[in-house]
Amino acid sequence: MTGQRRLRMGMIGGGPGAFIGPVHRIAAELDREIELVAGAFSADAERSKAAGERYRIDPARAYASVEDMLAREANRPDSIDFVTIATPNHQHFPAAKAALEAGFAVMCDKPVTTTAAQAREVERLIRVHGRPFALSYTYSGYPMVRAARDRVMQGAIGAIRKVVVEYPQGWLAKPESGKQAEWRSDPARSGVGGCIADIGVHAFHLAEFVTGLKVSKILADLGTVVPGRQLDDDCQLLLRFENGARGALLASQIAIGERNGLSIRIYGDKGALRWRQETPWQLWLFNEDGRSELLQPGDLGFPDDVASMMRTPGGHPEGYLEAFANLYRDFARLLRGGSAPLLPGIEDGIRGMVLIETAVAHSRAMSGWVDLAI
Amino acid sequence: MTGQRRLRMGMIGGGPGAFIGPVHRIAAELDREIELVAGAFSADAERSKAAGERYRIDPARAYASVEDMLAREANRPDSIDFVTIATPNHQHFPAAKAALEAGFAVMCDKPVTTTAAQAREVERLIRVHGRPFALSYTYSGYPMVRAARDRVMQGAIGAIRKVVVEYPQGWLAKPESGKQAEWRSDPARSGVGGCIADIGVHAFHLAEFVTGLKVSKILADLGTVVPGRQLDDDCQLLLRFENGARGALLASQIAIGERNGLSIRIYGDKGALRWRQETPWQLWLFNEDGRSELLQPGDLGFPDDVASMMRTPGGHPEGYLEAFANLYRDFARLLRGGSAPLLPGIEDGIRGMVLIETAVAHSRAMSGWVDLAI
Amino acid sequence: MTGQRRLRMGMIGGGPGAFIGPVHRIAAELDREIELVAGAFSADAERSKAAGERYRIDPARAYASVEDMLAREANRPDSIDFVTIATPNHQHFPAAKAALEAGFAVMCDKPVTTTAAQAREVERLIRVHGRPFALSYTYSGYPMVRAARDRVMQGAIGAIRKVVVEYPQGWLAKPESGKQAEWRSDPARSGVGGCIADIGVHAFHLAEFVTGLKVSKILADLGTVVPGRQLDDDCQLLLRFENGARGALLASQIAIGERNGLSIRIYGDKGALRWRQETPWQLWLFNEDGRSELLQPGDLGFPDDVASMMRTPGGHPEGYLEAFANLYRDFARLLRGGSAPLLPGIEDGIRGMVLIETAVAHSRAMSGWVDLAI
Amino acid sequence: MTGQRRLRMGMIGGGPGAFIGPVHRIAAELDREIELVAGAFSADAERSKAAGERYRIDPARAYASVEDMLAREANRPDSIDFVTIATPNHQHFPAAKAALEAGFAVMCDKPVTTTAAQAREVERLIRVHGRPFALSYTYSGYPMVRAARDRVMQGAIGAIRKVVVEYPQGWLAKPESGKQAEWRSDPARSGVGGCIADIGVHAFHLAEFVTGLKVSKILADLGTVVPGRQLDDDCQLLLRFENGARGALLASQIAIGERNGLSIRIYGDKGALRWRQETPWQLWLFNEDGRSELLQPGDLGFPDDVASMMRTPGGHPEGYLEAFANLYRDFARLLRGGSAPLLPGIEDGIRGMVLIETAVAHSRAMSGWVDLAI
Question: Hey, are the CB atoms on C236 and A240 less than 8 Å from each other?
Fold first, then answer.
C-alpha cells in the first residue's frame, strides 16, 4: 500500500518553542522516506496554525487538536501513515491511545508515558490494534552504538562484567526558566521522575541496548539539588545485570559545564568498549592483549546494517540528527512491512517506566547508607 | 513569487554511485526551505530514471539531459527555481552556462570550473543573466567557522600574523579504484589539479574566509606520490596574505590514517584560534593573557547569525550535512530576495581556479630549493 | 641540624621486583633535597644487598632487617633522617612503629596500615614521639590538583553539590600473576580491602583533598569479579559529603583497557572543575556563564605555592614522578622545621582505613537493592 | 674505572635564572647513574657559588670559570667524568673545545655551536681526543619516539612518502623580556638563527631520527614577525628526503596559545604514525587496512630497549624530564664503555648547523614565490 512513495507523518506537539518537534521533522525527512504533511502542533489553534506555516505544510492540515487531526486525516485519500508524538510526557499516553485506536502507527518520544501502568496499556493497545509503535531512544540510532552492540554480540569483549553509563548535563543547574526547563520540572507534566525520566532512561536503554543484557536489580539514589525544585535533578544508580554483571548509572542535570555527556563503558573478560555521544563516530575497542583501537566510519569490518547507517565517508561528521534519522529509517522499514529488530518499542518503554517508578519509590526509602565513624 | 513556499531544486549529476549528490539533496531539504523535484542525474536515461526513483521524485521529472530538464522545467508552472550542479568538475561549466542562460539560479559544487577562464566566463554570465549563483565551499557553513570569522572581525586575536591550514586525507594512498577516485585522478574530468583542486581549494577558501584576508602570493610544491597517477596527490604551499601575514597550506590525499582532517590555526598579535573539521563544534580561542577557552554551541556570546545556524542545543553534535544545509539556507535567503553576504560565490570560485592554475604551473617550474651540503 | 644539607633517607622495602620503591627513590631525590643512603630493602639479606647495589648506595648500609637498620643508623654521625616505608601493606604498621619509636620521621606508602586500629596507634605514636609523618597519596602532589583545590577554596565554583571520582584500572582483569598482583590480592598482606585499599583510598583522598570537604556517609558495593580472587576488585560507592553534597566513587581493577584512569569532576553551584590523571597538566574550569577554560602550567593566575611545584615551562609535560617528588619536597620542608599543610598525614591515613573497613563490612551486608519487577 | 659507581658530572652554565641547567641536573641524576658534583655555573664567581649552594654541591667545587673547573677537577682523585654544557649557544664551542682538550667527555645542549664550521671543529676534537660526546636533542629520548623509529625500521608503515613535523610555540609573541628570551633573540649569543636554531633543529632532528632518512634538500621561508627583533621567529620549510619523500617543517615562536607543540606525522605507503610531545606517551599507528591503534606504555610489542626506557606502568605519565633522563642513561652507558647508537652526537650537531646556515642564507635570497594574479 505504501509502495515506494514517501510515508506521511502527522505530528502531535512540536509547536512554537519546542525543541524535539523540529528534530523529529528533520530526522523523519532526512532520507526522503517520510514527509511531514499534518500536525496537531498545539492545543491552541492559532499556535498550531503558526507552526504549520513554519513547517511549510498545507494550512488545512495544521489541526487544533489530536482528535481533529486523527478524524480528518482518516478520511483523506492521502492520509497520514503515522503520528509522531513530540509533546511533554503527560500527553504521550492519551495521544498514543487515540492514534492507535484510530488505526495509526506511532513514533513516540520518550519516556513512553508517565506511569508504568499506562505503558502496559499502550502495549495492550498495540496488540489489539496491530499497528507499529516505536520509541525514540535516539542514541540507539548512532551507527557506532549499533557497531558496539554488534561487537558485543560477536563476543569481541567476552562476557560482560561491568558497565558504567553516564549522562551529565548542566542546563538545569539554576532554578528553571524557559519552556523546556519548566515542564520537565513539573510533576503534572513530567511524571514522578525528573532527571531519571528525562535522561536517566536514555542511559538505561543504552546500557541494555549495547550489552544485550537486562538490568535485574537497582540501588537508587535520586536527589533534588536545586532548592525549590519538585523532581529529582541528580541520579546515582548502582546496577546488576541479569548475568551478574555490575554497573553504575550516573545522570545529572546540575552538572555545570556538561552539555550532553552521555557515555558508556563496557568491560568484559576479554576486552572493553567505550563510546561517548559528544564525539559519536568514535568507538574505542580495547582488546584482551592490550591493543587499543579507535573505530570510525569508513573503517572496514562493520556489518552491512551498521555501515548502511553512515551517510558520509569517514571524517565527515554525522551527529544527533542523523542518529535520529536512523530510527526513522528503521521505522519506515517497519511501516513498509519489513523488520527493524533494533528499533526501540513498547517493551523498552515499559522497562523505562518501571525503572523510573522503582528508582523514585526506592530512593525515598533508601537504606544501606552508613556513617564513616572517624 | 517564491513567497514562503518551498523552493524547487533540480539536480544535475548526483546519480547512482555519487557521493555529493545525495549530500546536496539532504542539505537542501534539511530546513524545509527547499525541495528536490527534478533532476538530470545522469547522461544515461536509464540511470537518471533510476536515480529519480531512489530520490522518490516524480518520474516525469527525471530527465536524460541537462538541456531537456532546463527546457521542460521552464515550461512548467511549478518549475524548478534553481539547479544544483553535482557532477564531476568538467561538467560544471557547461551545466552552469546552460542553467544561467535558461534563467535559473545555480548552486555549483567546487571547484567552480576546470579553468580560470571558464570561471570568469561564468562570472560574466551571472552578470548578464542576473541570477543568483553560489558555490558549495561546505566548510564555510559550519557555525564555528562563522564564529571564528566573527571573532577575527571583532579583533579578538588582533592583527593576523600566521595561518596554518591543513587538509590531509588518506583515501587515495593506493592506485585509485572506484568511481569517486577515478574521475578525480583523470585530467579530462578533474582539470589540471588533483589534490589542489579537490581539497586544496577548500583549505584555501577556509583560510581566506576566516581571516577576511586575501592570499597575495604563493610558493607551491605539488607532487604526485602514487606511481602512475596523472595529477597531484600531495600539496605543500607557502602563503603570503595581503597584510603580510605568513602562512602554510598542506593538503594531501595519500596520508594514510587521515580521513577528512581539514583544520585551521590562525595566530594574531593578540590571540589565536583553532578549528578542526572532525570535531566541528569546538572552537579554541587563545587569549593574549594566556587563557585557553573552548567555545561550543550553547555558549553565550555568539552573534545571532551564528547562533541561528545551530539547530540543536550544545552537546548534540551537528556535522557535515548540517554545515552544508547552512549554505542552502543562505542560498534560499538569496533566492527569496534577501542577502547572504558570507555565502561563497563566483568570486570565490575564480580565486580557487587561479590558485589551482598558478600552483600547478608554478610547481612545475619551481626554483628555490637548495641542497643541504653536509 | 639538617641545615641545608641533603636529608638522608633509609628505605624499608622496595627491593628487587618492587614497583613503588624505585618511585620513592626517584621522587625523593628529584629536587636534591634528599638522598637515599640506606635501606632494609628485603627481609632476605642477599636480596637487600643486591638492591643496595642497584641503588648504588654504600654496601654497608644495605641492611637485612628494619631493626638492624634503625639500630645501626641511630649510631652513625651521618644517620638517616627518616625512613620511607615501601613494603606491602601488612608491613607498614610494624615498620612505622619501629621507626617512630627509634625516633625517625616516616614517609609511609598508602594505605597507612591494614586496620583502622593500627592507624590510630600510629597516630598515638606520632604524638608520643613527636616525629614528622607523611603518607604518599601521590596524586595530591600534582600541581593541577593543588590548583583545583585552590580554585575551590577561592570560591570559583561556589558551593559544591556533586563529586564524581573514578579510578579504573585493568591490570587485574585476569587471575593475578606476578609479585605486584599477588600481594595485592592476598588478605594476609593487603588487609581486608583489595581494590578499595589499593586505589579506592586514592580516589577517596583526592575527593576530600580537592573539595576540602569530608565524606560523612557512604553506600558501598564492592565485588570480586575474577573467580577465585579473595579480595574485592571492583568498587562502587555512593557518597555524601559533610555539606550534603552528593557523590560517587567508582574504582576497578578489572576494567580492561584502562591504565591508571583516576579522574575527578566537581560540580558547584557556580562552576565546575575536571581533572584527569593521565593528562595531569590539564585542568578544566567551567564557569557559571558557560565559558570553558583549560588551565595549564605556564598560565597566569596560579598561586605561588602551586606555580612553584612546576619545574618546567608550559608544554613540557611533568608527570607522576614529579607529582610524587612534590610530596617529598613538602616532606623535606617539614623535616627542616617548616610547614606543609597540604601534605597528607596520619589523619588522612585513618580516614582511609575507616573507609576501607566500613566499605568492606557494609558491602557484605548491603541492603537497599530492589528488583526491577517487569 | 668508572665501575658501577655513580658518574660525576660538572656543569658549565646553568646558574641562577637558567632553565635548562636544572633540567640537565634532574635528568642526569634521575636514574642514579650520575651525580652532579661540580660546576662553573656562571662567569660571575658569586653567582656560580650561589648556584652551587642551590644545587647543594661541595662549595669548593663551584668554580668561577670553565678553565678553573677543568684544571682543578683534573687533579682530583674523585674528578668529574664529564661536563654538561648548558650555556647560551655562543659558549657551547669554547666550552666543548676546552673540555675535550682537557680530556673530559661532553654532554652539550643544542644547537651544538653557532656555526657549522665550529661544529666540524668539534667533530675533529672528538676524534683527536677520543672522548664521548653527546648532544641533547631531548625529544629523541621519549620512549614513544624510539618506538616510532622502531616501527618505521620494522617496516610497519612501508616506504615513507611524506613527513609533517611542527614545532609551534607562543612565548616570543611579544617583544622579548626576561633572560631566556633575550639571549635567544640576540645574534651575538644565539648565532644566525632564532627560531630555526632554538626549536627548528629539534624538529629537524626528530624527523630524521624517526624516519631514519636524511633530508637532502630544503626550501626555506624564515621570517621575523615581531617588529624590532633581529632573528627569525617563524620558520616554514619544505623538505625532500634522500628517498624522495616530501615533507614540511613548521616552527614558530609567535604562535600564541601554543606551548611546546612539537609533533610529527609520518606517512608511508603501508601505514602512518603520529606523535605529539604534549601527550608523549601516545603513539598513533594507522594501518594499511584502516585500523587506528593507540600505542602506550604498558602495551605489549615494544622492543626491550624501548620498554626499558619506561620507568612506570602504563597510565602513570612520564614526561620531558624522563625523556631527558633517557639521554643521560644512554650517555652513562657510553661512558661505561657500552654503546648507545641512538644517542645524538656530533654528526647530528653538524647537520643541525648546516640546516640553520642554509635556511638563513637561502631564505634571504628566496625565489620561487609567485603572485596570485586575480
Answer: no
